[in-house]
């Protein structure tokens, strides 16, 4: 029998390759390789007309250098047979990879020089790369930052995801409305991936489940008459920072199985056969944009099962390679971290593989499964908790449904033993809801099937245990824990803010790049005049750079003398972009009344995408754009106020935006934002936060001190207490400024020829049942904005606040987050 191949595919005969001398890292060597790829591989001759190929030729040259280290990392892992983590996520929002690779290999200067010799600029090459936008927002970008930190910490962590043909849609703004356009990000080729067809897996759908008795007389199940889809992996290298480690992100692409086609072909149905091929390949066609509520989209469930089944089969193949067919010790060597409930089917799928293909008995399989899975929750909004109709499971995943039923039956009997007669509790905790159309509750499946459940900020984890998951926290208190989010400083400071990175390194050395707590050393310099001046100089440069970008995207001239007041994130009611807009209208109102000179000049920048089906979020975008058009055209506002909607907000846009922001808007209704991570990117780069006590804002404020944070708004407890007698109309009537703002918005001043377009958003705010209680926080917000304005007009004071924010951001590195996951959940040994 053939020895099964290992996960990395590095078998026994790779020695020769690794014995060849490593590639040189200087400009000469890079230039030579570049020329080779440009001319011989890509077949281009003239450089001027071929910018995309300049990027590609450079990327190939860099990839070769990664590849050597990648092979070595895979070999080291195989030799040591170490425990490892697989991070399962429907989203990895990687952004661009070239610059990250150059910095990780410490060859950015060599690359710049190599291109310079040809009269080319490295910056131009960077700009040709399309973002890998395989995620919606915070949850997907978090996964990308995690991978960066794990490689840098030398932790054996593999990301598993989906290679969507179309990533997050592009946003165009037309007459103030959002228009969605597809994102064919692979069209010009993606030089970072390696197809691994030899590691393809087969994933079942449909058919039915059959029971039989095996040769030993044991009752068994098999899933038959299935429609199978092939999962083909594409590997992307994840370099650690200057440590020669390269981990793997494995993305699966769906393709039709050959037999599937053949059957139909033999029946003379050639066109049907090709159509069937399409149906299979549709599974990985497009990333789902998240909506206000989760809906039962069949294709989305297919995506989830496709990822989970292919990935787990891949992990078990790796296990067999080392340990053979006995899976008892699996949980000692493998931990599967579930990024939200999206890959929750990993629980019943691992059960299926252990029961049906490895012939384990239930108790053994269940014990292995529960000791392998760990689950991270990313939302407190009940409407965002995933459920799937039982009927859909029955049709698509009949064998998986059986297993879910069995898990539930055993779980229910556990509850009855512990709380006899408590039927209300049984109903509340059941995996299957008692709705008219019964649903499978994916969060409960994740909790029951895992040994660890964590939230993503201290407040969020605490609220989960008191609220949504209260019954489960009572049953298994030891499972619940917190892991506050972070961001990687390699991308979100070192790469995106080179001028500030240089200044910081000049002052305190470069250890902060892998140990962000080093930034504390900046705190004593906060008041120092020279340093302040340099700090302001860098920030001024960054503001000019952003102004250029805004000009190119919108045609508007941003005034860099103004305070840049920035809110960029997905558009959602709970994030309260509309509250931000109310403040802008209030400033407009004051300036109109002649108070312009009393107001600190301000440019308000708002960016973000709305889910295509989320009508209210789209109305908010339209409202922002209408108000912006009136303000920016009004001569009286000149030098006082600007409002700009930045179209198509994404990772690369944030890389220009966060180094230039003065004020970071983190203004969600308390108790709704699980953590936030944009807040951390801004802080790291020296923006000061105006925010509510929500998510990680609480910890940000604690770290930087209350004097360096503009706090406003009701707390979680106050929100709960005031909800029952909340009366927005009365709040507005009692506040002249607020009444005037609402009057302006109702008057048609900002929508002269578009009557009624603000009705939706206004009515929502005026509703006593407004879940986001926007009106309640208007006054507090406006006052906090005034305090921010006052602070900004004292440039020394502001600069000190800015420096202190950056200095206190050490805790918000994903290096710390990953260390916490590893200490408490994963227990991995770092590569030596
Ligand atoms: C939900 C859905 C549902 C329908 C289909 C597509 C889709 C895609 C994503 C989601 C997830 C929403 C949850 C989420 O993004 N949470 C965010 O996670 C961040 C990282 O932990 C955190 O900083 C944010 O506060 C939290 O909102």
pLDDT < 50 runs, ≥5 residues:
1-11
Report the total helices.
34
Broad shape: globular
Helical content stands at 40-55%
Ligand identities: ligand 26V
State the total count of DSSP E strands. 24
Alpha carbon gyration radius: 28 Å
Q: Whole-Å distance between the termini?
A: 34 Å
Question: How would you sum up the major sheet?
Answer: 10 strands, mixed
Strand content: 5-15%
Mean pLDDT score, rounded? 95
Class based on secondary structure composition and strand pairing: alpha/beta
What does this 3D model show about the protein?
The chain is of the alpha/beta class. It contains 34 helices and 24 strands. The strands form 6 sheets. Strands 1, 4, 7, 8, 11, 12, 13, 14, 17 and 18 form a 10-stranded mixed β-sheet that branches. The chain has a 6-stranded parallel β-sheet with strand order 21-20-19-22-23-24, sandwiched between helices. Helix 3 (51-80) packs across helix 4 (98-105) and helix 22 (529-554) packs across helix 33. It is globular and about 90 Å long.
List keywords for this structure.
832 residues, alpha/beta, ten-stranded mixed sheet, binds ligand 26V
Write a short abstract of this structure.
The protein is α/β, with parallel strands linked by helices and 832 residues long.
């Amino acid at each position: 029998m053939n020895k099964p191949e290992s996960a990395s595919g590095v078998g026994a005969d790779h020695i020769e390759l690794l014995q060849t001398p490593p590639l040189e890292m200087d400009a000469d060597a890079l230039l030579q390789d570049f020329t080779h790829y440009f001319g011989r591989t890509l077949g281009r001759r003239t450089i001027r007309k071929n910018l995309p190929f300049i990027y590609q030729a450079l990327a190939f040259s860099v990839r070769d250098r990664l590849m050597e280290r990648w092979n070595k990392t895979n070999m080291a892992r195989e030799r040591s047979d170490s425990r490892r983590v697989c991070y399962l996520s429907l989203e990895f929002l990687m952004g661009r990879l070239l610059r990250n690779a150059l910095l990780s290999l410490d060859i950015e200067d060599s690359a710049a020089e190599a291109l310079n010799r040809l009269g080319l600029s490295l910056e131009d090459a960077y700009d040709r790369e399309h973002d890998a936008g395989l995620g919606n927002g915070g949850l997907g970008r978090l996964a990308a930052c995690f991978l960066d930190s794990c490689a840098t910490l030398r932790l054996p962590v593999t990301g598993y995801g989906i290679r969507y043909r179309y990533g997050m849609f592009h946003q165009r703004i037309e007459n103030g409305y959002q228009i969605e356009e597809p994102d064919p990000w692979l069209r010009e080729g993606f030089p970072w991936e390696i197809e691994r067809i030899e590691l393809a897996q087969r994933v079942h759908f449909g058919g039915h489940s059959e029971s039989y008795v095996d040769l030993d007389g044991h009752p068994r199940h098999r899933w038959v008459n299935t429609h199978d889809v092939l999962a083909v992996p594409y590997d992307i290298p994840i370099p650690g920072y200057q440590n020669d480690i390269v981990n793997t992100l494995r993305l699966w692409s769906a393709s039709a199985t050959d037999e599937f086609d053949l059957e139909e072909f033999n029946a003379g149905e050639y066109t049907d056969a090709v159509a069937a091929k399409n149906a299979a390949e549709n599974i990985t066609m497009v990333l789902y944009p998240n909506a206000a509520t989760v809906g039962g989209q069949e294709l989305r469930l297919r995506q989830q099962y496709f990822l989970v089944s292919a990935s787990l089969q891949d992990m078990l193949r790796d296990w067999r390679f080392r340990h053979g067919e006995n899976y008892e010790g699996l949980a000692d060597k493998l931990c599967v971290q579930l990024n939200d409930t999206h890959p929750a089917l990993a629980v019943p799928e691992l059960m299926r593989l252990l029961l049906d293909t490895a012939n384990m008995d239930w108790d053994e399989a269940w014990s292995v499964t529960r000791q392998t899975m760990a689950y991270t929750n990313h939302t407190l909004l009940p409407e965002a908790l995933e459920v799937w109709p039982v009927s859909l499971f029955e049709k698509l995943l009949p064998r998986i449904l059986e297993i879910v039923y069995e898990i539930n039956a055993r779980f229910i009997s556990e509850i009855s033993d512990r709380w006899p007669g408590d039927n209300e509790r049984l109903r509340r905790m059941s995996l299957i809801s008692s709705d008219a159309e019964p649903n499978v509750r994916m969060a409960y499946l994740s909790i029951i099937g895992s040994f660890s459940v964590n939230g993503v900020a201290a407040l969020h984890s605490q609220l989960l245990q008191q609220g949504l998951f209260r019954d489960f926290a009572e049953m298994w208190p030891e499972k619940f824990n917190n892991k506050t989010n972070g961001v990687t400083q390699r991308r979100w400071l070192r790469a995106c803010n080179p001028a500030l990175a240089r200044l910081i390194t000049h002052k305190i050395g470069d250890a902060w790049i892998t140990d962000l707590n080093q930034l504390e050393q900046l705190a004593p310099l906060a008041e120092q005049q020279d340093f302040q001046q340099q700090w302001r100089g860098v920030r001024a440069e960054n503001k000019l750079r952003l102004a250029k970008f805004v000009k190119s995207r919108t045609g508007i001239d941003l005034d860099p003398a103004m305070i840049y007041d920035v809110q960029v994130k997905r558009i959602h009611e709970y994030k309260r972009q509309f509250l931000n807009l109310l403040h802008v209208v209030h400033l407009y109102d004051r300036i109109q009344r002649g108070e312009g000179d009393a107001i600190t000049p301000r440019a308000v920048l708002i960016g973000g995408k709305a889910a295509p089906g989320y009508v209210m979020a789209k109305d908010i975008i339209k409202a922002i754009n209408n108000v912006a058009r009136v303000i920016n055209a009004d001569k009286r506002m000149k030098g006082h106020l600007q409002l700009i909607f930045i179209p198509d907000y994404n990772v690369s846009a944030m890389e220009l935006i966060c180094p230039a922001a003065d004020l970071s808007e983190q203004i969600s209704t308390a108790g709704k934002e699980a953590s936030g991570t944009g807040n951390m990117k801004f802080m790291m780069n020296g923006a000061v936060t105006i925010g509510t006590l929500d998510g990680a804002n609480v910890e940000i404020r604690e770290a930087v001190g209350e004097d360096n944070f503009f706090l406003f708004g009701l707390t979680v407890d106050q929100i709960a207490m005031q909800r029952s007698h909340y009366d927005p109309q009365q709040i507005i009537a009692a506040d002249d400024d607020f009444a005037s703002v609402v009057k302006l918005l109702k008057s048609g001043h900002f929508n002269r020829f578009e009557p009624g377009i603000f009705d939706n958003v206004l009515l929502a705010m005026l509703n006593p049942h407004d879940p986001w209680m926007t009106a309640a926080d208007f006054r507090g917000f406006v006052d906090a904005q005034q305090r921010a304005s006052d602070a900004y007009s004292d440039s020394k004071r502001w600069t000190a606040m800015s420096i202190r924010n950056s200095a206190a951001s050490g805790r918000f590195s994903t290096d710390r987050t990953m260390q916490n996951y590893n200490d408490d959940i994963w227990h991995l040994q770092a590569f030596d």
